[in-house]
Design a protein that fits this description.
single chain, alpha/beta
Amino acid sequence: MKRRLIFFAAAAFLVFSGCSRQDDPEPHAKGKVIVLMYHRIVEGEADNLYERSAENLEADLKYLIHNNIKVLTFNDLETIYSNREMPEGHSAIITFDDGDGSWYTIVRPMLLEYKMKATFFLWTYMMEHDSFLTWNQVEDMSNYTLRNGERPFIFGSHTYSHSYLYRNRNNFASQSEYNSFLDYELGRSKEIIEKYTPGTVNILSLPYGDGAGDPDIISAAERNGYKFIRTSIWGAVENSDFDFFVIPSLPMLDSTEPELIGDYLGI
């Protein structure tokens, strides 16, 4: 009898104190944003580190879908920063560097099939040369519009000549000359791309990842109208207090497994 009284007293305490015998559910952890960096996409096997097969690209897109990873744009990233709150679920931003013609023949139809958006960074000097895109193809991609009026293919700058922005600073006799070099690489490429694409070019991808976080490069980006610099620093955006001009990424190389995306997101 004594044991029963003790049991009922304990149960009553739990009820009236608002507690339960089970632990309260943990609040949902905020998500992360991973920026994926691709280069050339090829049919068949990739021949070098910076190529990725079309089969593997498709596997990546399926991985995003199966793991409920939402595909965002850099504008969405700006909204996250403005709201000072990361999304509930994990997200990805898909990017491509250089300007290979495979973007038009392989990437474009695949992204449309899977209803995904991407940002493409152009090495403007090489356009229309070798295996690079033509400006007509860039114009066609950038003006493609979804039924809701959104343009899924955004173009940014990979500079004019794809030079080392930081390592080349010692080649100039003065800070003024170095600044002029930066302004040409960032400003000229932006000017050319904007001739063929709607809107404003405001996203920069650093060639070779060189100069991430350098104040001179950041100042040049700001005075030439850029809002974002995507770097080659490996990592994910983990909280809303990130630096617009030092955005990390995950290079998707020839043998990268899609599961590595999940590793960086903590899946």
